[in-house]
Amino acid sequence: MIPGKYRSVSGRAANNVNCGLHLVIQTSSLPEKSKVEFKLNKETPSFSGRLLQHDLERNYSSRQGDGRVISPSPRNKSSCISSTTNVTELCGLEMKTTMSSLSAFGDSSIQTPSKSRIRQGCHSAGPNVSGDHINLASSSMPSFPILQRSSEEKILYSDRLTLERQKLTVCPIIDGEEHLRLLNFQHNFITRIQNISNLQRLIFLDLYDNQIEEISGLSTLRSLRVLLLGKNRIKKISNLENLKSLDVLDLHGNQITKIENVNHLCDLRVLNLARNLLSHVDNLNGLDSLTELNLRHNQITFVRDVDNLPCLQRLFLSFNNISTFESVCCLADSSSLSDITFDGNPIAQESWYKHTILQNMMQLRQLDMKRVTEKKRLTINNVARKWDLQQHRIPNIAPNQDRKVSDSPQDPSQLHGSTISAFPEETGSLDSGLTSALQGLSVTDTHLVEVDGDTLSLYGSGALESLDRNWSVQTAGMVTTVSFTFIEFDEIVQVLPKLKIKFPNSLHLKFKETNLVMLQQFNALAQLRRVDQLTIDPQGNPVVNFTLWKYYVLFRLSHFSMQKINGTEVTQNDMIMAERLFGILAHVASSELPQYRLISILGDARKKQFRYLLETKGKKPGLVNEENSDSKRLVGENTNRATLNYTTRDFYNERLEEIKEKKKFCKMYMEDLVKEATEINMKNEALQKLWPQMFIELVRDAVIEIRNKSSYMKLCLQQITDQK
Amino acid sequence: MLSPERLALPDYEYLAQRHVLTYMEDAVCQLLENKEDISQYGIARFFTEYFNSVCQGTHILFREFSFIQATPHNRASFLRAFWRCFRTVGKNGDLLTMREYHCLLQLLCPDFPLELTQKAARIVLMDDAMDCLMSFSDFLFAFQIQFYYSEFLESVAAIYQDLLAGKNPNTVIVPTSSSGQHRQRPALGEASTLEGVEASLFYQCLENLCDRHKYSCPPPALVKEVLSNVQRLTFYGFLVALSKHHGINQALGALPDKGDLMHDPAMDEELERL
């Protein structure tokens, strides 16, 4: 029974108010960038009235089962009465009052069945809402009309009662309706809230557009969730002590001068104090659930205490009197704020306004709502300009001119949070709180990071750093498309491992203006886990001009079984053609490379992976094992292509530089070996030449020695004795 | 093998001529780079594999350009590898631009310089309309000439320019070509009205070049053949003629004849298996 947000989307009553009734109106499809604030100022027609009508109509048509199509017209000033019951049924409604009191209250609200004060319904097709057959009968209580409904009515609509535009000047006594949950007194002349103390189950009380001067008579309504007191004459916020479950408090269009007595409303989510007489904002502590605070059209000069609101996301300060940033400096300390409006304040006229606000409130997603897309466009233009300069497409303009250029798009880029920032209703509030807090990232004008539901868009090389941040599991898990623009492909290659880990579900990659020039660069994409679709925009990617690029991609990334390239489906024929064209390359690359080269090439790639993992090992040790099995699988899948790697030019040159030293050493070593070998060879040759001569001499010497046998024998004996 | 000339060469010259040292140095360098991996299965085996791959011509795969360019054998192996890997592209009939061919080259050699490819393309396109599409065979043969004989071609270009300008680089008076000197003066006038240079004069210069040149040159006899067919020829005309000459292709020994370019039954079998 948690009341959801209020959304007024172009009139469609998309209200999640679940008052425990079977009246949950289904929300319209989530509006992408439409106003998401709850406006209850006078511009929109009676919101709740429409709400009830729509809702009741639905119920009505569903119950009656007749084909009458009722569509609530959005801005129909002639708002229909909520009750859509038939004329005949309305006869059940009776209202009694005394004749005497009538005169006291001026214009009586006596109705006769025949008269129909109420304007016609929205469509003639719909049931005509004719007069409320309210019979005013006298009662024992002086001056209070008593309201009674027929038992049929009571059964049919036991929990809601609408008394809109009944020209009531007092709250009637409502008899026998203790189950009432919804009570609507819009557009009357009631001056005091009375006679509703018995309605202790009341959840929704609408007193919009009356003449109430003081909040009172609500002390028994402990279940009250929605209290609409807009457009009254209330001067002071008071007597709300017991309304601890209050979720929405609307006090716009009153005469309130001070925020007080709201500190106990810890479930309050929406507080509307627009069009009052507030001169400052403080005393907001205790509003622990407040997400939206509307303070438009007041006289506020300074704002305090906003940083004590842990859930505050939207703060509307349009048309006040804020003139310096110091007066709103507490906003900088709020980590949850995501939307702010300052238009119509003197501060918004200052030249430094946007810059300062955005620089100090990094977590902002929207500033002055309307201009968000313009800002994004300007940022992207800036990034594009920088890219073109980098690519030497635009001649570098003169320095002072350059400064002007960089000054004019002074709107720094913002980080847009997920536009489907699902409110922490279902999911843990911790998670979403984290998302909104951490989505305030670097605000510079050189890059832009945007998460839009399932697409992560990165513009400019600085954006790649954002991959380092702690993305919430929910946001990261939803991202299926990653788009890179104005970033060098070589730089993207280096963050691909991070992308693999942080955004595991990314299946579609888009590249625009990323300087893809070689087929080889596609080899780098093979390290990802899975890619279903690839879009390479021709702009800024010359590789698309090649005839064979698609086939090469299909060939190299065949283990992904890609489905689409640049929007066109991949057919079986395409795959066959790719294999035919490049199959031999794969064969050569795998089987003809000597073993040691295979190992070194494959080892290189894996070494890089492990190195990265070791760096992040501290945070996610479990992943190392995953990587092991992952790479094992890789090897099994496409060994014959695995040797086709891509190293960025810088790394390649670095490696060649490293090898130079080794080469020099090898050269010297070989030279030494060669010198040795040639020396030995020379000696060998010399020996060959000299040997015959030497041999002859040896023989001759021996023969000469042995010529005289007897003297030779004597000589030998002599030699032997000498030796001893 | 034991021919007298071989034995007559001094050691260093012999080694240099056969580029033995290049390979030895490279082998040792590779050993150093990958010592952790290689130490696992033995150095002897490494050397076996290395020199086997040198013989087979697969040692140049995915190596840096400086290595590929180092020896004629490397260049020839690279040409052959390029042919084998991308023959299917040619078979498919696709006409590609110079840049795309360069891309394919880079798949095999990451730092292959663009200017070589550009020069090869110029031969095919006769220095005209560089963005034109070229067929695989045209490009391959032109590329062969350009890559294998790149130094030679540079010298030839210089000679050609000199001849065009009227200077005869042959300062040595060759007795059989007194006409060479005689031609010097009117050559100026002739060169400006007629395209290119005179074939025979050109040939004489080239012959001298081949004798002096330490880099590889096409066999002079074949060059003579090319030049004997025409009276005058331009530089690119000469190169085109070179690239299309069967004899020179065979002398190189890297690529099959043009007619057989698309045939490689062994590889086709492999392809079927994939």
From TrEMBL, chain A:
<keyword id="KW-0677">Repeat</keyword>
<feature type="region of interest" description="Disordered">
    <location>
        <begin position="59"/>
        <end position="78"/>
    </location>
</feature>
<feature type="compositionally biased region" description="Polar residues">
    <location>
        <begin position="407"/>
        <end position="421"/>
    </location>
</feature>
<dbReference type="InterPro" id="IPR032675">
    <property type="entry name" value="LRR_dom_sf"/>
</dbReference>
<protein>
    <submittedName>
        <fullName>Leucine rich repeat containing 49</fullName>
    </submittedName>
</protein>
<dbReference type="InterPro" id="IPR025875">
    <property type="entry name" value="Leu-rich_rpt_4"/>
</dbReference>
<dbReference type="InterPro" id="IPR003591">
    <property type="entry name" value="Leu-rich_rpt_typical-subtyp"/>
</dbReference>
<keyword id="KW-0433">Leucine-rich repeat</keyword>
<dbReference type="InterPro" id="IPR050576">
    <property type="entry name" value="Cilia_flagella_integrity"/>
</dbReference>
<dbReference type="Pfam" id="PF14580">
    <property type="entry name" value="LRR_9"/>
</dbReference>
<dbReference type="Pfam" id="PF12799">
    <property type="entry name" value="LRR_4"/>
</dbReference>
<dbReference type="InterPro" id="IPR001611">
    <property type="entry name" value="Leu-rich_rpt"/>
</dbReference>
<feature type="region of interest" description="Disordered">
    <location>
        <begin position="398"/>
        <end position="422"/>
    </location>
</feature>
Automatic annotation (TrEMBL), chain B:
<comment type="subunit">
    <text>Interacts with PCM1. Interacts with TTLL1, TPGS1, TPGS2 and LRRC49; the interactions link CSTPP1 to the complex TPGC. Binds to alpha-tubulin.</text>
</comment>
<keyword id="KW-0493">Microtubule</keyword>
<dbReference type="InterPro" id="IPR038968">
    <property type="entry name" value="CSTPP1"/>
</dbReference>
<comment type="similarity">
    <text>Belongs to the CSTPP1 family.</text>
</comment>
<comment type="function">
    <text>Regulator of the tubulin polyglutamylase complex (TPGC) that controls cytoskeletal organization, nuclear shape, and cilium disassembly by balancing microtubule and actin assembly. Regulates the assembly and stability of the TPGC and thereby modulates polyglutamylation of the microtubule, which antagonizes MAP4 binding.</text>
</comment>
<keyword id="KW-0206">Cytoskeleton</keyword>
<dbReference type="GO" id="GO:0005874">
    <property type="term" value="C:microtubule"/>
</dbReference>
<protein>
    <recommendedName>
        <fullName>Centriolar satellite-associated tubulin polyglutamylase complex regulator 1</fullName>
    </recommendedName>
</protein>
<dbReference type="GO" id="GO:0034451">
    <property type="term" value="C:centriolar satellite"/>
</dbReference>
<keyword id="KW-0963">Cytoplasm</keyword>
<keyword id="KW-0597">Phosphoprotein</keyword>
